[in-house]
Model the fold of this input.
Amino acid sequence: MRCLLRTVNRRRKGVVVYQDRELSGDPLSIGRAAGQDLYLPDLRVALHHANIVSSGADKFLIQSTVPSGIRHNEKTVQSALLEVGDRIGIGNCQITVAPAGGGYDLVLEVKHGTQDNDLERAPLSPGGNRAPARLSLRTWAWLLFGSILVLFLVVPIAGFTIPALGNFLRSIAPPISDSAWDPGSLNRGHRFFGDDCNACHRSAFFSVRNDACLACHKSAPHHVDIQAFPLPSLTEGRCASCHKEHHGAEWFVRQDEDLCLDCHEEIKSVAEDSKLLDVPGNIGEGHPELRATLITHAAGKEQSKRVSLDRKAELKERSNLYFPHKTHLDRQGIISPDGEVVLSCASCHAPDPGGRRMAPIHFEEHCHRCHKLTFEFDDPRREVPHGNAPAVLEALKSYYALRTLEGAYLESDAAASPPSRQRPDERASTMLRREAMDRAASQAEVVGKELFEYRACATCHQIHAVAEPFTRWEIKPVRIAEAWFPKARFDHEQHKTIACKNCHAAARSEESEDVLVPGIQKCETCHGGLGAESRVESTCVSCHGFHVSKKYAMDGTVIRATAEKRRNRRESTPPPRDF
Done:
């Protein structure tokens, strides 16, 4: 059965609009459910209210499926044969059977609602015409448009033009003052002039221009070295393209990856001599392996070298120390002068006051409790100074000279004749003093060799012999990196909920040259790019700062030259006269 369903809509001005839709099938369902062939959006209509079925050649029967039935030619029935001109009422919908044609077996005209009845019940206007009982939607739309135009454009402009009116509106009705134009809160640094919109918005209906920003920020460091990188995107772009005001502090600086990847995705295309690696994507999206900064010593100078963490053969820290983490982190404890001690990472490593990095290691605070610098078994409280080889020898000579003059027995005396004795009140002769000093110097050499080459110093430090006037040994300087990733920003305070061993394999490290920092894969277990659902959402600026210039200001002047001019101006200003 092919059926043409023609929906009739009548506008207020009498215009009739037809919408035709073809239906096919037997039976044809009628109801309020979305899957019905003839959908009637009326609560008075059941979900499946009736069916139209074929009952022979060119005969059709409508059957109700609910007890309330249907209205057939103004009579309530449960079923009826349909003929041309019949009217069926279901809810507020009227269905009229029209003459078939055009290859259709059945043609139905559907009118939703009671459009004709509404017009009939509409009251008469003074001229005798039917008028609607309420305002049309278009009239309401124009009224709403006019109200918005007056309240949020005309009135604020009047308040802006007339300061007295503007102050009055802000005090009693902020929503219809120029405060209605405020799209959001300002960044904290701009709030002190937040009431002066003209400070930034100097021209009506124009975006904020760079000269408005430079009025205050011209002496701030430039975002890039404009001489090394004269890129239009960095030197001629709009400030507002990266700094979004009226969105709070969180969105004042762009956070998306494109801010950095525009250049760093192919860094050689904008900086041919750059030693940085191309970054095809954010963390978890192709970020290259991290590179640790190692301190080396060449040509008498300290130098830094960046080595990728996946190049294990080159990833060696030359700190000039002997320090196996595995030994110090033994779960059974280590032997100390005070007995067995169980150490943990926090025994030596503590965050600095800011919480971002780890504070430096100091011998007196972290090592001395276990590593005593004693040298005489019969004088366990006497120790040599730490960190100065010549001072160690001088301390030993002074100590043994005093003991010799006091008549104490020295180990070096075992191979020599004992020193001459004198009475307590008798002053030692010059020869005896010289003899005592020689014995003290000899004993200092013996003990110094033992300290520097076999115990104490040699336990932790790399030492080599030298032919210097005041010392025979030199301790190689300790070179420990203060930050493995100086080009990144890592905050230990924000990661304090994670155990140290989750990132640092110190308990398995047997060599002091091991670099105990994790690679990018460890970071990617917790951090993801924008839109990450199961990981911490992170972007480039979460770990990396912008390449702010140390030489040029935002207006292109040299910062040092500007500072020099200011200093000269202060020095050239005569002091006030004292009357």
